[in-house]
Amino acid sequence: MDQKPSQWWKDEETNDGGSFNQAPSVPNSHGVTTLDGMPPEKNRITAGILALLVGGFGAHKFYLGYNNQGIILLLMSTIGMILVFPLFASGIIALSEAIIYFTSSDQKFYDTYEANQKLWF
């Protein structure tokens, strides 16, 4: 009884149709498992850079396909040219979203902003 135990990544015994001894499927080359199996459409680094540089004008929202939220930020920043508070608020929103984008993983970014379409923060 000098038999090694079977491990999930090695199939030492013959597999009788069950899949419990097989390795899990490898995600696509980007390391993100998407709903349709294709690479994700949006990149979190690009969204983060847009939020950091021109996020006060809603550029990162337009990039992610959230046009209504992009228009809201754009209006806040243009009205903010006259009044200080809306400009300050849109800048804080953009900065906080840039931090969220940069600190989340690619999979979490995809799940949150592409698959579930979370609009704010």
What do these coordinates show?
- The protein contains five helices and no strands.
- The chain is an all-alpha fold.
- It has a domain of 72 residues.
- Helix 3 packs across helix 4.
- The radius of gyration is 22 Å and the shape is elongated.
Please outline what is shown here:
The chain has 121 residues and is mainly α. Helix content is 50%, strand content 0%. Helix 3 (67-79) crosses helix 4.
What structural category characterises the helix and strand content? Answer: mainly alpha
Shape: elongated
Tally of helical segments: 5
* Relative strand content: under 5%
Termini distance?
A: 58 Å
Poorly predicted spans? 6-29
Average the pLDDT over all residues and give the rounded result: 77
Compressed to H and E, one letter per element, the order equals HHHHH
The Rg value, from CA coordinates, equals 22 Å
- The number of distinct β-strands equals 0
Major beta sheet summary: none
Question: What's the helical proportion of residues?
Answer: 40-55%
Please render the helix and strand layout as text:
Elements: H1 44-54, H2 59-64, H3 67-79, H4 84-103, H5 106-115
Helix pairs in contact: 1-4, 3-4
Which key features would you list for this structure?
mainly alpha, elongated, 121 residues, single chain
